[in-house]
Amino acid sequence: MELKDFDTILESIGSYGPYQHRMMFFVVSMTSLIIGLQVSTRIFITIVPDHWCHVEGRESSSMSVDEWKNFTIPISSDGSKFEKCEHYVIYWENDYTPYRSNETMSCTSWEYDRSLLHETLATTNDWVCDRELYSVHIMSANIAGSCISTFIMPYLADKYTGRRQMYLVSIFFHFIFEFAAIFTSNFPLHLVWRFLASCSFQTNYQMSYIISLELIAPGKRALAETLSFAAWTVGMCLTSLLAWAAGDWRYISTVSLLLDSYMFAVYWMMPESPRWLLSKNRTPEATKILMKIAEVNKVTGASAEDLQQQLTAIEKQQPAAITFAEIRRYPTFFRTVILLCCISAASYVVYGVISLDVNFIDNSYFMNFFLLSLMEFPSQVTGWLGVQYLGRRLSAVLTYLLCAGTCCVAALVGHDKTALLVVVSLLKWLSTSALFGLYLQVSELYPTTMRSTGMGAIAVFGTAFFSATPYIINADEGSGFKYLMLMGLSAACAVLSIPLPETLSMPLPQTLAEADSIASVRPLKKLIHHWNVKKFTPVPFYGQTCSNDKQVTRAEESAVQELARLKEDQE
């Protein structure tokens, strides 16, 4: 019997039929939309609106609200706004005439600008002044929970539980701890509940996304990825509408909680990953799932016995697992990993500051967030065009340089709020395009045997630095310094992207040796793009020397045939 790979078997039972269409819409698209919305709600519930001291006595005077505020609240030292944490000491003459002294005292209670959001965590619990960082801590805990779960839960899924069961566990995490957070005002407890609830987001997304993509034809996976990104963006845009309509953090969180009902339903829609079952020697279960796919796709002639024989043959050919410790034996690839980690950290900070700082124009939360979310759509298009025609490396360098220049402009036009909105929207566009290209490079530079682990590690590394962005935003206080910092980080990313190997039109490396040899067959001094890519060796070939002086001896026959075909085209 001819040995087949899993994709060939999948094609024989229907790799893009009704079953895959359902998975792409009901699983990939809908879960991406819901998770995109759930993640984005964190931004609105932690907003700290404009506030000032509540001073008793206005009802006993003839002053309006604004007149009383002008009378009782001192102006800040720069003369631009009212103080938030102090008020004048007020005396009363004849029990009905207020008299203002020059002395000030700290607030004991506050009034809030509720014109846009009636209640946030800050207004409900008075997390302002000496407790203003509480909201920042909550946002950072949300990001940290997502970061840590990205490292732990996928590992447990691959090692023990399987992806479908871990998906269910993560939904329970969100449902239980989101529910607890809604009814908790105590800061330490609320912080813990938010941290644990956020552990679900990345896991929910990754598990459903990976299971779906593994059951879709290779040529259609890019379409599924595009649908996922688009649905996530729709979810982000809908968050602005939800926050505007609800106006209260409890209602916003409740809607996020209720959406878990659909996420629970998805658990029954999707199967366990047949590839994972195969890796755990559970071939009969994998066979049963593939037969179900054949039935839904109306493919006749599929035999459970034949499928099980083919899967058993594949199971025996599976490569041994590779650890991260082994990459140190391949200096060129090890350097690439270090560069990718550094670029990921800086890119996540740039993207995070732009995405989370929705109040750079006062009292325009909804418009700011909606416009910035809308920028996700064109960024995916330009990101794809850039990497496809300019090449991965040149596209990355130019995108980061444009991002650095735009950050400089943002620092200069901070006084003009309309101009700042335009510039920051462009920044969101560029930073998202940069992340698109980064993840494509990661997927193409890591070998097959550690690609998913490598992408997870890069995500964890970037998200760890992303958790610092709420503090950067809070510390800046409108000075524009954050944009200068982002300019420096973007420029650093441009420089660090230069040594990365160009992977345009390269088959994916299968082993560490092949990944290590990419830089040898694609020299740094050559500018490779869509119009000259055929002039360069597309794959590691027999006899190619790696940076560790080992020979690449397992280049596949298909790669050699591809090289010969390209040479014939050139002739």
Task: Outline the secondary-structure elements.
Layout: H1 6-13, H2 18-45, E1 51-53, H3 65-72, E2 86-93, E3 97-106, E4 110-112, H4 121-125, H5 133-161, H6 163-182, H7 187-198, H8 201-213, H9 221-246, H10 249-258, H11 260-269, H12 274-279, H13 283-296, H14 304-316, H15 331-356, H16 365-374, H17 376-389, H18 392-412, H19 417-445, H20 451-466, H21 469-476, H22 481-497, H23 512-521, H24 557-570
Antiparallel strand pairs: 1-4, 2-3
Helix pairs in contact: 2-8, 2-9, 2-10, 2-11, 5-6, 5-7, 5-8, 5-20, 5-21, 6-7, 6-8, 6-10, 6-11, 9-16, 13-14, 15-19, 15-20, 15-21, 15-22, 15-23, 16-19, 17-18, 17-19, 18-19, 18-22, 19-20
GO cellular component, one term: membrane
Subcellular location: Membrane
Pfam families: Sugar_tr
Q: What does it look like?
A:
With 571 residues, this protein is mainly α. It has four domains: 1-50 and 129-318, MFS general substrate transporter like domains (Growth Hormone, Chain: A), CATH 1.20.1250.20; 51-112, no CATH class; 321-504, Growth Hormone, Chain: A; 512-570, no CATH class. Helix content is 64%, strand content 4%. The protein is built from 24 helices and four strands. The chain has helices at residues 6-13, 18-45, 65-72, 121-125, 133-161, 163-182, 187-198, 201-213, 221-246, 249-258, 260-269, 274-279, 283-296, 304-316, 331-356, 365-374, 376-389, 392-412, 417-445, 451-466, 469-476, 481-497, 512-521, 557-570; strands at residues 51-53, 86-93, 97-106, 110-112. It has a two-stranded antiparallel sheet. Helix 5 (133-161) packs parallel to helix 8 (201-213), helix 5 (133-161) runs antiparallel to helix 20 (451-466) and helix 15 (331-356) runs antiparallel to helix 19 (417-445). The longest helix is centred in the first third of the chain and has 29 residues, at 133-161. It starts with 5 loop residues before the first helix and ends with a helix. The relative contact order is 0.10. Mean pLDDT is 83; it is low at 539-571. InterPro entries: MFS_dom, MFS_sugar_transport-like, MFS_trans_sf. It is a multi-pass membrane protein.
